[in-house]
Amino acid sequence: MPMKGRFPVRRTLQYLSQGDVVFKSSVKVMTVNYNTAGELSEGARKFVFFNIPQIQYKNPWVQIMLFRNMTPSPFLRFYLDNGEQVLVDVEDKTNKEITEHVKKILGKSKEMLEKEEREKKKLSHPANFGPKKYHLRECMCEIEGQVPCPAFVPLPKEMRGKYKPAMKNEA
Amino acid sequence: PGLCPGPFPGLCPAWSPRAVPARGRKTRHDPPAKSKAGRVKMPPPVDPEELLVVLERYRQHRLVLSALRAEFRAEVLQKKQEERLAAEPSVEELEEHRRLMAWNDEENARQRARREERFRKEEEEQKRRKFEIAEKRARKMEAFLEEKEKEVLQLQEEAKNFITPENLEARIEECLDNPRNYNFAIDKDGRIVKRTVLS
């Protein structure tokens, strides 16, 4: 099966999950105006080509729109939910600089992300047993070093219910 | 008659559990029988102490229940308000946001300065180039004019030696008087001998 596109690595989950720009919850729309030709727009083009998939993967609820060859110079515009618009001029910047800039002004900080991670973890207790969808393990027989599942390895006679009273009677 | 109110069959509060009216043979419009002429319907007997006790118990039960309901309602409202408060951004966050926006504006201003600088440089560059081109053109023009002038002067010089109808006779006489010998001899070593015999 052939790989699709010029840089198929952009479609891999590993690449996408490496994006570190997670927008704050107030950012709703991101608009990128850039040009398809010109030296000054090169950084913006690379940003659109390489970094926007990562951003969209991490922010599935943010609408991203691209406008080509509409303005002489490239820029980004963010629309927040309180009506505020944030303009970012990206002429003559590399795509790395652009991502850093965006992360600084509108991205969630590392502490915030960690806090959210911890909150999410608190909801589910890892020591509980239950369906695979909600818990890690279903039965004690899954754990190394415990009695294996009787479905695969029959229990010794002493532990089985039908022999216990017989043993007791004998004794 | 399968009378069922609305969407939930079997759920009719006044008639549950599923009591069917026992009218039997007669409809409501038929007159009652003659044997029931002097019938007086008496309400069921009530024991006053029992009634008091039962009423008191019901009162307390309902009191407790409504209190519990109010309690739970208040708790839910409280939780919702807390959620709302936590969701909206706090003062520090707003402050932080304003600071970041200010930084972004500065960055934009710096970018604008850089862009203006670049434009200025490019304009200067263009002007210089234009100037150079104009200079070159001017120089070429000058050189051309010089060339033309030189040619004109040369022609003027040569004009002195032209043969006109006036000095035609004189020139012919001159040529006839001075015969020019264009013959020459050359040997294998490349030596030219111009002095030959004119025939």
UniProtKB/TrEMBL annotation, chain A:
Domain of life: Eukaryota
One family name in Pfam for this protein: L51_S25_CI-B8
Subcellular locations according to the entry: Mitochondrion
UniProt keyword list: Mitochondrion, Ribonucleoprotein, Ribosomal protein
Predominant place of localization: mitochondrion
Residue ranges annotated for the Ribosomal protein/NADH dehydrogenase domain, each copy included: 36-109
The keyword Mitochondrion appears for this protein: yes
A GO MF label: structural constituent of ribosome
CC per GO annotation: mitochondrial inner membrane; ribonucleoprotein complex; ribosome
Gene3D superfamilies: Glutaredoxin
PANTHER family per UniProt: MITOCHONDRIAL RIBOSOMAL PROTEIN S25, SMALL RIBOSOMAL SUBUNIT PROTEIN MS25
UniProt record similarity statement: Belongs to the mitochondrion-specific ribosomal protein mS25 family.
Protein name: Small ribosomal subunit protein mS25
Annotated organism of origin: Poecile atricapillus (Black-capped chickadee)
UniProtKB/TrEMBL annotation, chain B:
Principal localisation: mitochondrion
UniProt feature coiled coil, ranges: 106-158
Domain of life: Eukaryota
Record has Transit peptide as a keyword: yes
Region spans: Disordered: 1-45
GO cellular component: mitochondrial small ribosomal subunit
Location of the protein in the cell: Mitochondrion
Compositionally biased tracts (Pro residues): 1-10
Family per similarity comment: Belongs to the mitochondrion-specific ribosomal protein mS26 family.
Name of the protein described by the UniProt record: Small ribosomal subunit protein mS26
Organism, as annotated: Poecile atricapillus
